[in-house]
Amino acid sequence: MNKFLAVVRREYVQNVRSKTFIISTILGPLLMIGFTILPGLMFGLKTGEATRIAVVDQTNRLYERVRESVMQAGDEENLPAQLRNSRPAREAREAFQVQYQLEAAPLAGRTLEETKRELAARVAQKQLDAYLVLPSGILEGERPEFHGRNLGDLITIAQLESRLNRALRLQRMQDANINDAQRSAISQEVEMMRCKAGTRCEDEKSSESNVFLAIGVASFIVIAILMYGQVILSAVVEEKTTRLAEVLFSSVRPFTLMAGKLIGVSLVALTQYGIWALIFLALGLYGAAAIAASGFNFSLPSVAPSLIIYSMLYFVIGFLLYATIFALIGAMVTTEKEAGQITVPLSMLLAIAIYLAFPVIRSPNSTYAFWVSMIPFFSPVTMLVRIITETPPFWQIALSLLIGVATIVFTIWLTARVYRVGMLMYGKRASIPEVLRWVRQS
Amino acid sequence: MSDHPVSLSVERVSKKFDEFVAVDDLSLTARRGRIFGLIGPNGAGKTTTIRMIVGITAPDSGRIEMFGRPFTPELRERIGYLPEERGLYKRMKVGEQLRFFGVLKGMEPRAADRSADCWLERLKLAEWKQHKTDELSKGMQQKIQFVATVLHDPELLILDEVFSGLDPVNAELLIGVLLELRARGKTIIFSTHMMEQAEKLCDDICLINRARKVLDGSLREVKSSFGRNSVALRADVADEKLKNSPHVAGVKSYGDYDEVLLKEGADAQVFLHELIAAGVRVERFEQTELSLHDIFVRKVGEAA
Fold first, then answer.
1. 3.30.390.10, 3.40.50.300, 2.40.110.10, 1.10.150.130: which CATH number matches B6-224?
2. SS3 for A208?
3. How far apart are CA A51 and CA A169, in angstroms?
């Protein structure tokens, strides 16, 4: 036991002290903050200059209404106020806010073709960004034309389209003599309550966010494995490149060494994640406090404590499982470079787990869901999804955890065996049949 | 020699890797307070033998007993093993590293530190304790590796090619340490293909070639069994004439002298008489033992 702890301790201290660890610990949150804020900033850049659009109105009565509708933010006036004012909706609106500058382009006696030619010339000279032709039959469904310099700006075009339709809708209602009060009464929408069958109905929209929790845990495992797979690999190869393996094996069992290294590196990963979690928790609390102080009514999605425990459990098992596979690869090769190509498909396996989880969300108690959540490589995602959607019997959860742990122990054992025999033959990479032979002999 | 208790006995051990026979029916005995040399050409099976002794690979057949018991993992703590393939953690400080190795051998961290300090002092490395290994020269690293091997005061030391890469000064230092350990009653097994060192240090030897034992015993016995039947001769006599002598089996000419190998049963005194009677001026006439090197070359050469 002391030997095991000594191996764990050495691995931990060496890694935590390394420059890579310190730099990535500091850089990680900065990058994450960057990635969440930057897109917003990028979209924000667009607000700097308005999109200039000329409108050729062949109906001669729609321009004002179209202009008003296009200039007015908010395309979802039909949604219930609760949804319209929800934070994501507001944020999305703000992020995608595009400003417009509209001008009427009257035909003034010229033909449509002449006007279009003139407008096209102005677009080419960059006096305009686009022009819009509203045909006289537009209210009856004739298609308007959008002539733009940049047809790639999908957000602007879609927004323009939706706002144009809003103007048309209003115009048609007015033509049908429907007043404003009637109009909003007609277009009132309702939102379904989400209730679990057999329980008292409370709106359980939180279970939606719980599905995201499962996907979140899966992505955390993917990220952790991408970041730490390489660390584990080099930790395992280290004794080979430094030629220390033989010295160590005269003092400690290969299994102890492998398990110790794995736990050591995993603790390093946990430390890093712990630091990040604290940073984000602090920022989050600060943010929540700031929002609360501004008087905005806001509640954190509620997550059951058991779910948090299961998430952590499956995170740890998923991480260790993939980590042992990396260790196994490390045991087969002689240098880190050789391992490079093998590691990519491995990370793909977890991505597959996420895809496999989607059918599980829809029918969490199917035979498919059962088997998929028993396969150790997928269970960290699939079982978690099942627990969230329709909690399976406890024995199933326990079984999947057990299979996970057993697979980890078996893989470490296999790794130790491959490592020990592989070490005795320096300088050449093993083929799979050779590895199988190593496992049998020794 | 038999008053030294046996600390390691290997009995009829064999090991195959697929079709390749690495060690074939090998037996040997190492005793307390003696230095045992496992010698043989490259690829003879020395390293495989040692790995089986240390418990890294298991023999296919045969028995290995240590301190009178079959080998168990617990016995590892009484062994110090310096393999031929050796290294150190590059980015670890010397002191930390030695403590780690000590703990792996079952020591308390503090005891490991104390012992490391002693040994670093003894090998003139004390000021390097706080340095990282990759700041050290090759020779220094090798001495650190040796310290890691003896740190936990093992009763049985197994050193594979311990002198390779050491300069003469450090080699002398190490020989001194080994002799001192022997005097303290340790058993030392070391493998080498460098006969000069083996000849200087070993009490007992075992020569193996192509997986099999060729000869073994105490160095004294081995050498005397080859007899003193060669003569270093410097005299003004033609090689042809020497070869025609009824006593001579062969002649090798070196720059300064000839080495004359006498026939079995021939008396060197009679040979000398004959030379003088023939009027040859003899400047040097020295009966020599075969060196371990010669024995090695002869035995391994015979097999080839």
1. 3.40.50.300
2. helix
3. 23
The model's pTM = 0.71
Residue B202 contacts residue B35 (beta carbons within 8 Å):
yes
Residue A250 structure tokens: 């005269």
Over the stretch B195-220, which tens digit does the pLDDT of each residue have?
888 888 899 999 998 888 888 888 88
Low-confidence ranges of chain B (pLDDT < 70): 1-2, 303-304
Q: Taking residues A150-169, report their average pLDDT.
A: 84
Neighbours of A172 (CB within 10 A): 12
First-last CA distance in chain B:
32
Burial of B207: CB neighbours in 10 Å, binned 0-12, 13-18, 19+ = buried
Q: Does A306 touch chain B (CB under 8 A)?
A: no
In sequence order, the β-bridge partners of residue B163 are none
Structure tokens belonging to residue A155: 């957000």
Contacts of A19 in chain B (CB under 8 A): none
Distance CA A187, CA A180 (A): 11
- Nearest Cα to A47, choosing from A103, A96, A90? A96
Give the best residue of A11, A237, A247 to mutate against chain B (max B CB count within 10 A): A247
Chain A CB contacts of B19 under 8 Å are none
B105 to chain A, minimum CA–CA distance in Å?
6
CA A367 to chain centre: 28
Residue A301: CB atoms within 10 Å: 12
- Inter-chain CB proximity A10 and B100 less than 8 Å: yes
**Which SS3 state, helix, strand or coil, does residue A57 take?**
strand
CA atoms within a 13 Å half-sphere pointing along the CA-CB vector of B128: 23
Burial class (CB in 10 A: 0-12, 13-18, 19+), A173: middle
Distance CA A341, CA A337 (A): 8
Domain parsing of chain B, residue ranges: 6-224, 228-288
For testing the chain B interface, which of A251, A420, A437 should be mutated: the one with the most B CBs within 10 Å?
Answer: A251
Domain spanning B228-288, CATH architecture: 2-Layer Sandwich (3.30)
In this structure, are residues B82 and B159 in contact, taking their beta carbons and an 8 Å threshold?
yes
Residue A4 dihedral angles phi and psi, to the nearest 5°: -60, -45
Please name the residue of chain B whose CA is at the shortest distance from the CA of residue A13.
B92
Query: Residue A359 phi/psi, 5° resolution?
Result: -60, -30
pLDDT in tens, B161-170: 888 878 888 8
- Residue B177 has a pLDDT of 93
Using a 10 angstrom Cβ sphere, with 0-12 exposed, 13-18 middle and 19 or more buried, the burial of residue A44 is middle
- CB-based contacts of A123, cutoff 8 Å, min separation 6: A129, A130, A131, A147, A148, A149
Give the residue carrying structure tokens 């073709």.
A113
Asked if A247 lies within 8 A of B77 by C-beta distance, the reply is: no
Predicted local distance difference test score (pLDDT) of residue B303:
65
With an 8 Å Cβ cutoff, are A424 and B56 in contact? yes
Cβ contacts of A349 within 8 Å, gap of 6 or more: A322, A377
In chain A, the residue whose alpha carbon lies closest to the alpha carbon of B105 is A251
Helix, strand, coil share (%) of chain B residues, nearest 5: 40, 30, 30
Q: Judge whether B239 and B283 are in contact, CB under 8 Å.
A: no
Which residue from B81, B90, B92 is facing A247, i.e. has the nearest CB? B81
Those residues with Cβ within 8 angstroms of residue B217's Cβ, 6 or more apart along the chain or in another chain = B204, B205, B225
Q: Name residue B37's beta-bridge partners.
A: B190, B205
> Domains of chain A by range and CATH?
49-186 (3.40.1710), 204-440 (no CATH)
